[in-house]
Amino acid sequence: MAGLRVGILGATGAVGTELLQLLEERSLPLEELRLLASPRSAGQQLPFAGETLPVVEVSEDAFQGLDLVLASAGGSVSRQWLPIAVAAGAVAVDNSSAYRMDGAVPLVVPEVNPEDLAHHQGIIANPNCTTILMTVALWPLHRVRPIQRIVAATYQSASGAGSRAMAEMKDQAIAILQDRPPPTDIFPYPLAFNLFPHNSPLNEQGYCQEEMKMVQETRKIFHAPDLRVSATCVRVPVLRAHSESLNIEFQTPFPVEEARTLLGQAPGVRFVEDWQRNYFPMPMEASGQDDVLVGRIRQDISHPCGLELWLSGDQIRKGAALNAIQIAEVLLEKNLLG
Amino acid sequence: MAGLRVGILGATGAVGTELLQLLEERSLPLEELRLLASPRSAGQQLPFAGETLPVVEVSEDAFQGLDLVLASAGGSVSRQWLPIAVAAGAVAVDNSSAYRMDGAVPLVVPEVNPEDLAHHQGIIANPNCTTILMTVALWPLHRVRPIQRIVAATYQSASGAGSRAMAEMKDQAIAILQDRPPPTDIFPYPLAFNLFPHNSPLNEQGYCQEEMKMVQETRKIFHAPDLRVSATCVRVPVLRAHSESLNIEFQTPFPVEEARTLLGQAPGVRFVEDWQRNYFPMPMEASGQDDVLVGRIRQDISHPCGLELWLSGDQIRKGAALNAIQIAEVLLEKNLLG
């Protein structure tokens, strides 16, 4: 194959920016890179590999000739344009939630279920950030002894709500430090020096969308429809990278040392534990990293078959853009494009 | 009783400052207020009720004539001086961890186990902040159907590490916003825009002291030696007030509506839930409040006998100073002083 003709739909957002950077860093052979966006963002110029690329308005004809489309412009944009991209002959890796639970669409974390890509019908879904980070960390354990139940509490950074949210949190911090009221245009409540349960819509049982993504997507990725998961998702005043406290129950005891060994060898995981220095994964250190930082693995003293585990991971990188690029790399390697 | 002669040991710290404010606000009859501190802090003057009180150096004679000593100067100071205070005839309410697990010392949250005060032998222990907040919220449920297991994840503010820690986090935020390296004199790692597992010493099982306090103190306060508790304590970049995500297991299902009704009537609890607005307890709103804000009660979808619950509470106020003052109020009311 000479090289790929790749389109990015939503190139100007936080994930789009990261996709461009990863395409520079990594080894996908590019013949063409086409940046597509809504009319609002079209006309911008973005730097790429020493050149400047124009952002053009997405249209019926914009996908002609593309092999691969990486979409990160939100669910409604994906629903509108990805079927057109696929009809034009491209394979689409979608970062939105639009197709994730569609039975015909593989939902893939390359470290976990790359084999699911074989059955794609044009669209492949990239999981939600919190799910990707959790599944990378738990799969090495789950494949040895199936997990029965997960109780998750998350610590999610401002960047999960986009680059404007990050800027708003910085403005809020400055305002609070100067005794001025913090601006809240994007977040419903001040986030700087504060925190609040994730503000996605709540279902009738009181779980928010973000929490239900962790429940449903993990089951689909692990092919474990009966896996019991509960999650509490919380937005915290961190700029970038999400953290998660995971309580995991197995059917039989899981020796801590075995878990440590497995995670020490696991792809996509960097094991970060220094018990002497009280040094464990932190979002500050996970930011900009490809690996999910995992550590603080403990036997749960409240359950004989339980483990406690702590992780931090860059949710824009591995939690979104990198995972999409890795999917594209597997598609190319396995000859599943076009 | 004419009025109480009260001493505060550690009057210049974050909790000491709050104790002074609460003594101004609340109704304990004061005949004398004596401020005691280490040689380092002695000589300062602190405002109280329109006057200025001197901080005097703690000594063998400093407790003479006192009815009540409120101690918040750390474990070693309490161990050194409280036996002397008690020998001099005072009752001591200790905010440090020195005596909490001493079988002869009541560990009391007035909303939960005020009856334990009856058996005091001079020293009464105030529980750790995270434990106080959790027990106030869970006792109304536990007394109806005993809790079998708690899995807690905490979101603890900088102020839990003292007023200098709060100041350091503000300095860190300014430094990071100005692209300068953040100072870390008090915390081991930058806390502003970051977070990390609680940096108290770790035991052989990998649990830190803060976590084991939640385990052991809750058992003692609830008189439930077999209660199973696991906790993950995390320091977050919030100035004041701690939050906790609590997963609670009962032996039989606990209807959510019943839990909601019980917590709506519970002393020390303010029920904060507006599902339409996605509005739940936040540390920003818990700061400076007497009540623990509790909400987001959900049936745990991963366990038929489980509930999920979220809280925020001011750990300097109810988590420390207020609880100590409330203990003193019960002691006075039940004639247990002197």
TrEMBL record, chains A, B:
Phosphate binds at residue 100. GO terms for molecular function: aspartate-semialdehyde dehydrogenase activity. Keywords: Amino-acid biosynthesis, Diaminopimelate biosynthesis, Lysine biosynthesis, Methionine biosynthesis, NADP, Oxidoreductase, Threonine biosynthesis. It holds the Pfam family Semialdhyde_dh. Pathway: Amino-acid biosynthesis; L-lysine biosynthesis via DAP pathway; (S)-tetrahydrodipicolinate from L-aspartate: step 2/4; Amino-acid biosynthesis; L-threonine biosynthesis; L-threonine from L-aspartate: step 2/5; Amino-acid biosynthesis; L-methionine biosynthesis via de novo pathway; L-homoserine from L-aspartate: step 2/3. Substrate binds at residues 156, 235. Catalyzes the NADPH-dependent formation of L-aspartate-semialdehyde (L-ASA) by the reductive dephosphorylation of L-aspartyl-4-phosphate. Homodimer. Belongs to the aspartate-semialdehyde dehydrogenase family. HAMAP family: ASADH. This is Aspartate-semialdehyde dehydrogenase.
